[in-house]
């Protein structure tokens, strides 16, 4: 966080004040978050926030929204909707079906409401997620523009390192073993125009959590972070700034006779309050 000295002292944001000894003091109801150099203000006056640590256990999400979340699954009998478990610290786990057919058959999807737009300003998505396996599957983590159907927002086109964008507007991290390069790819689409895909060079490890973060500007420019480190460069045209989005975690199988799981430890979304 930076402040500017003036002749009368310090020029500071509304969320903090100058104490009697010129120390910076956070006002009641405000919170400063983030690593050094990337702090941001969070508080009921400034930000709209959706955060879930998935504690409690026993909640099976379905197409009916519960606690702000909805789950969809494919037609394969092995698919299991995202369910809040009794794990320490809480998790939501979705089980992918054991067929290669399609998202419609083997897929699982966790999403919420279309409550977020890039033009709100300071739109942030962050989730801590792990995959039970890193072979023969397709996964997307980020934002998408629809909550009416089971859909993989962006996936491999199964030809070199090219992608297929099923969503009209979406931005996120894609891992798909049908890509030539088995890393997390940074992908986006704005009004059916694909943003330039970037290879993050980050390789997932089976059963190991990673933290995925997207920061969207009011113009729809995305900056990506994996485990607190920026991945790639700022992506222009990542989404249409005026299109409503939902956080989403989705995956489907590219193999048979196995049922991979996707585990979300938490999901956090915030943006400026209008």
Structure description:
- The strands form six sheets. Strands 7, 9, 10, 12, 20, 21, 22 and 24 form an eight-stranded antiparallel beta sheet that branches. Strands 8, 11, 13, 16, 17, 18, 19 and 23 form an eight-stranded antiparallel beta sheet that branches.
- The longest helix has 4 residues, at 103-106.
- The chain has two domains: 4-42, no CATH class; 48-272, Jelly Rolls (Sandwich).
- It is mostly beta strands and 274 residues long.
- The protein contains one helix and 24 strands.
Layout of secondary structure:
Layout: E1 4-6, E2 9-11, E3 16-18, E4 24-26, E5 31-33, E6 40-42, E7 47-52, E8 70-73, E9 80-84, E10 92-95, H1 103-106, E11 108-111, E12 123-131, E13 137-144, E14 154-156, E15 163-165, E16 170-176, E17 185-190, E18 193-194, E19 198-199, E20 210-216, E21 222-226, E22 229-235, E23 246-253, E24 261-272
Antiparallel strand pairs: 1-2, 3-4, 5-6, 7-24, 8-11, 9-10, 10-24, 11-23, 12-20, 12-24, 13-16, 13-23, 14-15, 16-17, 17-18, 17-19, 20-21, 21-22
């Amino acid at each position: 966080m930076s402040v500017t000295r003036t002749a009368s002292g310090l020029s500071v944001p509304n969320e903090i004040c100058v104490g009697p000894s010129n120390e910076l003091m956070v006002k009641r109801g405000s919170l400063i978050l983030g690593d050094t150099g990337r702090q941001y203000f969070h508080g009921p006056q400034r930000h709209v926030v959706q955060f879930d640590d998935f504690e409690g256990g026993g909640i099976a999400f379905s197409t009916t929204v519960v606690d702000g979340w909805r789950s969809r699954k494919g037609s394969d009998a092995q698919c299991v909707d995202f369910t809040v478990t009794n794990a320490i610290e809480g998790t939501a786990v979705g089980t992918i079906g054991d067929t290669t057919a399609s998202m419609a058959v083997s897929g699982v999807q966790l999403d919420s409401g279309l409550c977020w737009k890039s033009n709100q300003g300071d739109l942030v998505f962050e989730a801590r997620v792990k995959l039970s396996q890193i072979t023969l599957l397709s996964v997307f983590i980020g934002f998408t523009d629809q909550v009416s159907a089971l859909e993989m927002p962006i996936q491999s086109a199964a030809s070199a390192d090219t992608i297929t964008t099923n969503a009209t507007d979406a931005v996120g991290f894609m891992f798909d073993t049908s890509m030539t390069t088995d890393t997390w790819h940074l992908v986006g689409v704005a009004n059916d125009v694909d943003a330039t895909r970037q290879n993050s060079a980050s390789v997932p490890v089976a059963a190991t959590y990673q933290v995925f973060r997207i920061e969207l500007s009011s113009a729809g420019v995305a900056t990506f972070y994996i485990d607190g480190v920026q991945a790639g460069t700022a992506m222009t045209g990542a989404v249409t700034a005026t299109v409503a989005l939902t956080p989403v975690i989705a995956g489907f199988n590219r193999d048979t006779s196995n049922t991979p799981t996707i585990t979300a430890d938490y999901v956090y979304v915030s943006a400026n309050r209008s």
